[in-house]
Amino acid sequence: MVWFVLMHLAGLIVDLNGGAHEESEEKDLQIALLRHQVRLLQRRLPRPPRLSRWEKLTLAALTARLARLTDRMQLAQVLLLVRPETVFKWHRELVRRKWTYRRQQARGRPPITADVETLLLRLAAESPRWGYGRLQGELAKLGHALGRSTVRAVLKRRHVPPAPRRGQRASTWRQFLAQHRDVVLACDFFTVETLFLKTLHVLFFLEVGTRRVHLPGCTANPTAAWVTQQARQLTWTLQEGGQPARYLIHDRDAKFPAAFDTVFAAEGVAIVRTPYRAPNANAHAERWVRSAREECLDHLLIRGGGAPAPGPGGVHRPLQPRPAAPRPRAALPHRPPCARAGRASASPRPARRPTP
């Protein structure tokens, strides 16, 4: 307590002596009295008071102007509530806030609420004949003012088709194949390079339901007549086996002539052509070609033009009729007949000529 009294007395003496040399004695006395009161308040308060932003701004402006006229030591004697470094810190904070970029609020129409969007989707589902304008009018009757473009944008974002197609049942390609896989045939060509770099074109047919593969053959020049003949042989095979087929899927390759489609159309088989550059539309055939290459053809060297072996994904059923089994050969004199009647016996070895 004694030290506080001595400190305030010393400060008062210094203020009085410093103000004696000034021209206005009354002004100096007022300043000394104000400083002494501030010291008393600092001793009474346990911690410095919390200043508002405007109070900080006033102190920072006065301190910045006074710093131009005096040095740092005198400025520290004048500032009693805070230190000069604190005031400069406040000023730097004000400058930072001045130059800080503030994000502007997004302009344009505000987004619609989730309840209004749910109501719009419900109206579109329950009334498939209503267009964008009708839906806009019905929402306006319910107190929701939406633009026609907003209605169209919401329905497109939710993958809802427009009014003419909304009432129709949309069937995807995958659903079509799943429903009719037992009566769908897929056909395509793939190439095989022989040992002497001769390109062979292999035609195959795939039953999507059973994954059975028909390999008519291969040729170096797939002409229209050859392809049409393979189509006729396939239809004969399907008729004999009693396997119905209603759809045939193939791409738009020029190797499939119009006569090829006519053969199947005469048997009541509808032709389904895949779109341009869409191999996924004939995915079953493409997948079998990959299996045949990776598991069979990549490990073989083919010399001639015979039909390659089928891949493990399907069963090879040759379209050409197999040759009849050879009849059992008659028993030769001085030799017993063959043990198996259904199997041809081996040809006898020619008799050796007597050596001279």
Task: Give the secondary structure arrangement, pairings included.
Blueprint: H1 2-20, H2 25-44, H3 53-67, H4 72-78, H5 84-99, H6 114-126, H7 132-141, H8 148-157, H9 163-166, H10 173-180, E1 184-193, E2 199-207, E3 213-219, H11 224-241, E4 247-250, H12 258-266, E5 270-273, H13 283-295
Parallel strand pairs: 1-4, 4-5
Antiparallel strand pairs: 1-2, 2-3
Helix pairs in contact: 1-2, 3-5, 7-8, 11-12
How does this structure look, described?
- The chain is α/β, with parallel strands linked by helices.
- The chain folds into 3 domains: 98 residues, no CATH class; 53 residues; 125 residues, 2-Layer Sandwich (Nucleotidyltransferase, domain 5).
- Helix content is 46%, strand content 10%.
- The protein has a 5-stranded mixed sheet with strand order 3-2-1-4-5, with helices on both faces.
- Strand 2 and strand 3 form a beta hairpin.
- The radius of gyration is 50 Å and the shape is elongated.
